[in-house]
Amino acid sequence: MAVTLNETPSANRLHIGIFGKTNSGKSSFINAFSGQKVSIVADVAGTTTDPVYKAMEIYPLGPCVLIDTAGFDDKGELGALRIEKTELAAQKTDLAIILFCEEEMSQELKWYRYFKEKNTPVVPVLNKTDLYTQEEKEKLAHLIQRNTKEEVCLISAKTGEGIRNLKELLARSIPEGYGNRMITGDLVDTGDLVLLVMPQDIQAPKGRLILPQVQTLRELLDKKCLVMSVTTDQYLSALENLAVPPKLIITDSQVFSYVYENKPKESMLTSFSALFAAYKGDLPYYIEGAKAIDTLNENSHVLIAECCTHAPLKEDIGRVKIPRMLKKRFGEKLDVSLVSGTDFPDDLTKYDLIIQCGACMFNRKYVMYRIDKARNQYVPMTNYGITIAHLTGILEHIALP
Question: Which segments constitute the Hydrogen maturase F dimerization domain (predicted)?
Answer without folding.
Answer: 184-281
